[in-house]
Amino acid sequence: MAEDTAQQASAAPATPARSLLPLILPAFVVGVGASLLLLGVSAAAEELQHVLWRHLPDALGVGRYSVPWMLVMLTATGVAVGLVVWKVPGHAGPDPATTGLDAPVLPPVVLPGLVLATALMLAGGPSLGPENPIIAVNVGLAFWLGRRLAPRMPRGLWPAMAEAATIGALFGTPVAAALVISEALAGRQLKGALWDNVFGPLAAAAAATLTTTLVARPTFDLGLPAFGQPDWGDLAAVLVVASAAALLGMVTVLAFPYVHGAFVRLRHPMVALPVGGLVLGLLAAVGGHLTLFKGLDEIGELAADPAGWSAGEYATMTVVKLAALLVAASCGFRGGRIFPAVFVGVAFGLCAHALVDAVHPALGVGAGVLGILLAVTRQAWVSLFVAAVLVASPAILALLCIASLPAWLLVTGRPQMQVHEDGTPVR
Prior knowledge:
The chain has 427 residues and is an all-alpha fold. The protein has 17 helices and no strands. It has helices at 2-11, 17-20, 24-60, 67-87, 111-124, 131-149, 157-171, 174-185, 194-216, 232-264, 269-287, 296-304, 311-331, 338-355, 361-377, 380-391, 394-411. It is globular and about 60 Å long.
C-alpha cells in the first residue's frame, strides 16, 4: 500500500519552477495588505474600546466594568451594529451563522459595512474574534483588485492567498495557514505536488506573518509553569480533559441552530442585535469582565496567576463564555469563534487543575483548548496547533496528539457550529 502511494505521488507531474515564480510578487502584496488591514481594524477597535470602557465611564463617574455599564455598552453595541446591518449598503455581508473560515467572495459594496460592523463589535465587548469577517474582507479585496490588475492569474488563487495570508497574520506564523490549506485540499484531485498547490498561499502567509511580526510582535505563549517529563497520570489527564472539553463544546454546537432560530424569528437586525447585546450584558454580569471581548488578552490574565481563581470561578467563566459565544454568534454580530473558544478552553483547563492538583496547568490548558476547538471549529490541525503554541511544550504536544484521537471521535460526523441559509445545521 505504501509503495503504491509512493508511486502515485511520484507519478504526479511537478509544476515547473517558472510557473511558480510569477506567484511570488502577487502573494507578497496580498500578504502585506491582508496583515495591514487586520492590524488596522484591530488598532482602531482597540482605541475605540479604550474610549468606551475607560475614558467614557471615568468621565461619567461610573465603574468601568460595573453591571449597569456592561448592560448599557453591550446593548448599545447591538444597536450600533444593528444600524450598520440595516442601513449600510451590503448589510455587512451574509448572516455570520452561515459562514466559516472558508469565506465566499463578497461584492466590493459589502466590504466597508463588514469592516465597520467588525470594528464596532470588537470594541463593544461581544465574545467574538476578528477572524471570519477579516478573512472575508481580505478575500473580497484580493479577488476584486487581483482580477483587474493581473487578469491572467487563476481566479481561485486570489481567495486562497488572501485566506492563507489572514490566517498567517492572525496566528503569527505561516504554519497555521499551511495546515489549514493542506486540510482544505485533502481529498481533492490536485495537479502536481501538494507543495506546488500551496506555494502561492504559503508565500502570502509568510509575507503576512513577517508584516504582523515586525509591526505588532504578537505572541501566543501564555508563560505557564514548565511541564517536565510526562507519566501515565498525565496521559490519563489529557485524555479525560480533552474529551470532556469536546463534549462541552458539542453541547454549544447542538444548541446553536435553536438559539440562532430564536433570533431569526425576531426578524429585524435592530431587534435581534440589541436583544443579543442585552443578553450578553446579563451574562457578563454573572461571569465578570474577563468574559467580555474576543478573549485573547483575557487568557493572558488567567494564565498569569493560575491559582488566582477557584474551581467554581473557573467553571463559571467557562460556562458564561460559552453561552456568550453562542449568543453573539447567533444574533448577528460579525465575528469569528476561534479566539473566544480558546478562552473557554483555557478556563476549562485551569478549572481541571484547580479541581485536581495533579493536572498540570499547562497540560490542562492545552487539552481544554484542543477539545473545545475541535468541537467549535471542526478544524483539527488548527485546534492542535493553537493548543500547542499556547503551552509551548514539546512533551505536551505528543500527549495532545494522542488526546486528539478520542476527542475527534466525539465530534466528527456531528453537526457543526454553522447553519445553512434555511437554518439547518451544517454537517
